Amino acid sequence: MSKLTIKSGKGELSLKKSKSLVGLKTTPEKPAAKEDYVEAEVHTNLGGFQVVSLKKEGDDIDSKLDEVRRRDEVEVGTHVYYAEGSNKPLVATGDIYITFEEGVSEGEQRIVLEEYHLEVVERRDKTRLIARVTPQSPNPIKVAHMLQQVSLVKLAEPDLDTILDEYEFREPSDDLITQQWHLRNTGSIPGANYNIRQGADAKVADAWRRLGGLGSERVVIAVIDNGFDINHPDLRTKVFRPFDLWNQSPNLAMGDPRFTHGTPCASVALAVSNGRGIVGAAPNAMFMPISGTSFSNRATEQMFDYCIENGADIISCSWGTTDPNFALSSIKSEAIARAASKGRNGKGCVILFATGNDDFDFVNFYAAHPDVIAVGASTSQDSYASYSNRGREVSVVAPSNGDWPILAARASWDEGISWETGVYRFYRDGRDRGPLYKHFGGTSSSTPLVAGVCALMLSANPNLTAREVREILQSTADKIGAPSEYSGGHSAKYGYGRVNADRAVAEALRRMEKQPEPAEVEETVTSGQGLFRFSVKRQPSVGWGVQTGVYKEYGNVLIQAEKLQSQFNQPIVVNINELNGETVYKVILGAFENLAEAKQLHEKVKAAGISSFPADLSKLG
Fold first, then answer.
1. pLDDT for 267
2. Residues 6 or more apart from 492 whose CB is under 8 A from it?
3. Number of structural domains, the chain?
């Protein structure tokens, strides 16, 4: 049997036997002539075994392992397995954790153990014990698989060992990252004969190192713009709940050469780290593209309400207007304020707008909104970008062009800049960096850069409110330019300074550490509070669901059921049981025929920040 399915942890593992690797235990007293049969050593100690590849010389792995087992120096030889979808070797240590059904006597347990020639290593209680295979036993994984078919056995889980990940942070190795001076400015651009100012960057690479990673996959950045190439290799793997306002559909319009702006904007915030091309400031963040900018009241309400309803944490907008004829109406202001207060379950969406590129002494009217982080631009020399609009509303500036441009993703239909020669060019110095990228800039680039920094802050501390995020960004920014340009810590050009991702993340982490551990407090509904409409029918004890909680108060069950049903549009199953003499209610979301469907829902529930696990309904009936 080359493929087996066994229970492991809270789920199942589908295991496939390695065709080349085995695990060996050898006798210390007898020197092993391993060169006779070992091709290479893969791991010195995995589950007490040395994992090696064998010289098969045409034999299959089963025949060769049987041959090696007969050698004097080999005490034990075992197969090595791989879990489906994993490239990490798994070795069974020989121990099996067994839980018998309630009421199974020790005599009956002994019969089961003797059937598979198992010896008891440790008894935990009347129904739970640890057994170990003997030379007469089958492979421990096979034993566990067979035990799981025995009616007296509730659970049989083989003890497995595998290689664990070491969480030493490794910086992205994407091949164009050295061109991305805005993440870390070393004073030069490889391949370009141009001097920039060392340290004139957003300190993003330092923030990654402080975090020990590239941010959380649970943070969602909505980019509202036009011209998203969602097939771009730096964006296509992370698209989440896209929406096109112009066609009122999740299918984004693509291919119009008039609209290319959204692609580079999104990439500056969140381009994935995949070993190729560029990376964004928050490479692990999810990408919610909302296509179709509009001045319309109705469209403005829809775009921001969509962000609230679909789980956007951060909203990045590199557009707006400085035309006095089109100042924000109260309806638009209220739509932005609503997202800033009601988004993220009341913590508020973090909303960023570009100040604009007009060299005006006032900012884009959207950026002037009191709930918005207004982002201007600085240069690779740590100076003011002359095009960046100024004003008392400027929150921070972030590196962009004005001296040397930013490298960003390019939509596949982007026609670039037509020069007098008729040649389309995408790079300031004319040196080709491939068809997927281009030089970019303006406050259009600095804004999503700060959006990515905000995603790193929320990765460090998801409890921050939108107001706290803006406060931290401003208080940790680096003062650049002449000190005389600041009054009360603020400059009309620079806001509170050039964004410093490392210091912002450090402050987010500090505030996380200061927060007390949240107490497990159940919502309690007393008599007369709340009005609920529901229908009840018996649920067959078959299939799978996703368990989200256990409650003592039935009022809490009603509250949670209402929330879950509205959020996930799935039926609610309640299991009534007893725990230590008290009635408890287990709340299960969904009822599916197979585990795979339950796991899909589990991922959605987990992504929403709700503790949960797939539950076998047959064991709850």
1. 97
2. 361, 390, 391, 392, 394, 485
3. 3
**Rounded distance, CA 174 to CA 276, Å?**
4
Contacts of 579 (CB under 8 A, 6+ apart): 550
Pairing verdict, β 118-123 and 128-133: antiparallel
Q: What is the CATH number of the domain that holds 363?
A: 3.40.50.200
pLDDT tens-digit map of 500-520: 999 999 999 998 876 544 333
**Co-location of 294 and 348 in the same domain:** yes
Instruction: Note whether residue 412 is domain-resident.
Output: no
Q: Is there a domain that residue 289 lies in? A: yes
Domain that holds residue 351: 202-226+249-407+438-508
Amino acid at 569: N
DSSP state of 307: H
pLDDT at 481: 94
246: closest CA among 238, 232, 256? 256
Three-class DSSP category at 590: strand
Phi, psi of 436 (to 5 degrees): -95, -5
Q: What is the pLDDT of residue 575?
A: 85
Residue 371: partners with Cβ closer than 8 Å, 6 or more residues away: 336, 337, 340, 341, 348, 351, 466
**How many residues are listed for the chain in this entry?**
621
Q: What is the CATH number of the domain that holds 590?
A: 3.30.70.1070
Categorize the per-residue pLDDT at 528 as very low, low, confident or very high, splitting at 50, 70 and 90. Answer: very low
Tell whether 188 is covered by a domain.
Answer: no
Task: Provide the strand spans (E) within 101-152.
Answer: 118-123, 128-133
Of 53, 1, 56, which Cα lies nearest the Cα of 23?
53
Cα(109)–Cα(51) distance, rounded to whole angstroms? 33
